[in-house]
Specification:
about 150 residues; mainly alpha; Helicase, Ruva Protein, domain 3; 2 domains; 6 helices; about 0% strand
Length: about 150
Amino acid sequence: MKRLVLILCLLAAPLWAVEPGEMLDDPVLEDRARTISQGLRCPVCQNESIDESNATLAKELRIVLRERIVAGDTDAQAVDFIVSRYGEFVLLRPDTRGANLILWFAAPALLLVALGIGWTAIRRRPAADEGLSDAEKAELEKILRP
């Protein structure tokens, strides 16, 4: 039973990332902040959103985000503010326009090229050898017999 409680506490750890002191009094604004922060990557943890991360930098980003929302920024303006400081790396779902389009399609394109090269190499492979001729079998028998 103790193990189950411990496992559940460890699984719920990301829920404790946003501290009560960070939360806004207005539930609508807090909901907006939580929604936005779930789409922003923690620069320290890299695969966690700032909403889930316990890192100090993630906490500072959550506070800055809430300050921007209270100041009257729209969701896009608040995200743009953070992206302007940390780059597109902080977006968990990067933009799919411009130069990023190359990054989005490079992996599938390279996979198709690799499959094409593999298919071509397999098709051009010489046919399997039929085995030894009668003369070669006789020569082998002569060598193997003492």
